[in-house]
Amino acid sequence: MSVAVAEKLVSKESHSQSKSLWNHAWESLVSDKIALISMVIVSIYAIVAILTVTGVIAADWSQEVGASYEAPSAAHIFGTDIFGRSVLLKTIKGTEVAMSVGFVTAIVAVVIGVALGGVAGYFGGKVDDFIVWFYTMFSSIPNIMLLVAITFIMGRGLVAVYMALGLTTWVNLCRLIRAEVIRHKEREYVQAATAIGGGHSRKMIKHILPNVFHIVIIQFSLLFQTAIKSEVILSYLGLGVQGRPSWGTMIDDAKLELARGVWWQLAAASLAMFVVVLAFNLLGDALRDALDPKLKGKS
Amino acid sequence: MGKLKVFGKLTLVASMLVSFAACTKKQNLDEKVLNLVVASEVKGMDPIYANDLYSSNEVARVYEGLLEYEYLKRPYTLAPNLAESMPEVSADGLTYTFKIKAGVFFQDDKAFPNGKGRELVAEDFVYSIKRLADPKLQGLGWWMIDGKIAGLNEWRDKYSKEDVVDYSETIEGLKALDRYTLQFKLSKPFPQFLYSLAMPFTFAVAKEVVEFYGKEFLNHPVGTGPFVLPVFTQEKRLTYTKNPTFRKKTFPSEHSEEFASIAKENAGKDLPLVEKLVVNIMKEDQPRWLNFQKGNLDFISIPKDNFDSAVTPDNGLADTLAKKGISLLISPQLDVTYVAFNHDMDLFKNKKLRQAMALAYDSKTSNKLFYNNTAMSAQSIVPPGIAGNMPNYVSPFRERDLEKAKSLLAEAGFADGKGLPEITYDCPNSTVSRQQGEFFMKNMADIGIKVKVIQNTWPELQKKIDKRQVQMWGIAWGADYPDAENFLQLLYGPNRSPGANGSGFNNPQFNELFKKASLMQDTPERTAIYEKLNRMASEEVPIIYGVHRQKYTMKHGWLKNYVSTDFDAGQAMYLDVDLTKKAEDLDKL
Which residue of chain B has the CA closest to A262? Predict the structure, then answer.
């Protein structure tokens, strides 16, 4: 029984004392109107993407709804494309590709970046030298060339896009994590962990990682939007997603259609991309403001 | 509407910026330069590998053959080029003896002693044709002479197993009798033989050059032709200059009535007529269109998306363009577009499946979307204008009929597409090719067949077809010579890849009949067999036919002597540029 009382006491105490970093960040995030709106927009895109994947909406995007190249009207808000398909539905279906590319790519980049960055920063010495050499060399290859090379090797398709973008965008995060881990590994709490016999992996994952995780979150949102933009560029170049609507292929179509005055496909795809990329950028800023301890107290 | 206007303003600003930029870069009007465009990458400059339109046209600027087509004569007629005259043919039609022009020199190149090109001799043709037959080189034009020249197949077979191919061995059917006399002995009648001597595959190369450059020969063309290209590189622009040691060749006087004025105006002029030739490689429609508008290209075929703004409903040219001195030429093309099956796959041995897919393909809409309704729906493989085409024939598998397609698909064992794997469709990587692929995908989806579109560069696609790494692909065939045989051979079993039969269709009945026709001279009986073959080619659905296209060409007023042709290899030497008119017209653009 006495145990229960003590627990209650502790919880009461902590509640009245101070909030955790995460609680704090969340509060400052929701109090920022722009961040809130950005979050709502990103969530809407995510929901739309999930709904198209499951086929709840835009499942019939490939159906003809009218003649070829119908101008926007009340019936078709963004008009129709060359085959008479609704541009609106194609744009919505394109969200699926954009969001999945953004998400998977960001995950791939985070896994590589955090793992390499963490190991380099933590162990230092030869390991660090090697990893620094590796990413320096890697980042000296122009990104778009690397992307093209990877898609040529892996063939065309969604998986190739995931991998190509994931493999080309991790360097920045790796660098940041490495620097942050170097700072943390000499701190008292890590020394304390060493003192009580914590192994390397325990110190790295259990102790250091949570303390550098805010960087991952900020970078994640920035990687996400970079990936969306890159997917559009790849698809525009004919190296991206094949056989399903993507904003990039829509813009690729539009470059011909503009000659006959058909602007709506370009408008729809660009607008969709513009809104989500802007939302992610603003969200990334807000996350940094909320999570980065160095910025605390500054406005 | 509001948006439209804003956009209009934006494009106006953009186009003003573009035109300002254009003003700053003045065109060179001191010398005659032809500015041409190719719509695809060029594979290389070796005649024996020039099996596509783009490469063979480039090869033909530098290299020459025994024969060529009369530039100003229709129907198409062969004329001697490096041959002194048309050959003497023996009574049995099997021996052809050519006299070769004396005083023809290869272009100067460091592969020759002192860098001076040497004289062309009959032996060069013997060497060049042996090269085409060389089993180690795997020339892509071998199908054309396979089994036709006495002793050549034996030579090829003999050395296919050995490490080194011996070119010095004499072949009975391919001999240089003296310095300027060349004799062919055919092993069986080959009525299209002379046509094959006008194709880039058989053009003359020099042994010294081939040996000097080795593998790099592909990039170092040295021929006897009117233009010189020092080095070929995979760039966006190829610049040829006039060959200073080109023999005296004058503008042809033979002509059809319709071209009388061109023949008269140019009578006696030395070829080529221009100093320089710039070939731009532009895969996409819009850069071609915009560069033509700016006067950077002398002629182009009209892109589909600019068609409505360029051509009036009664097939005239829009006023805005006519005012700039631009003119329009419309001419039917000897070609056929198609979607091919890879018959190596067991799946496509199922005839009912092929028929079902053909019936699901909407050729009418495709004609509207991609050819502005100017093309002609292809009922079978032979285009109109040559014997073997049946003008009133309607293929039972041409008009879209979804009900029938679905029931055929069920009979094939794949009701509603169940049990069918996802089928890949390969195409070149331009936007229009992709749209065509998507259109095919959409048509097939209507009967439940899943198709995936894969885009490739042109050389990559050709390689994949040669190596049989494709399932279905969209492509076209343009005539090499005006004979239905050239189209029907696409389906002849023994011609399979790397021959011209990329699909690998192999039907014993068809092969038998084709073999028979290929030995016959141009007679009504042969036409009857051609028609029978053509009908089989339709009913068996070895490939899904698309359209026979029409060429809509726009040219600037300063380009002289342009004549639409199906065999444009070598055309550039006849073209001329009127510099005064160009200066005037450029101001109007």
Answer: B4
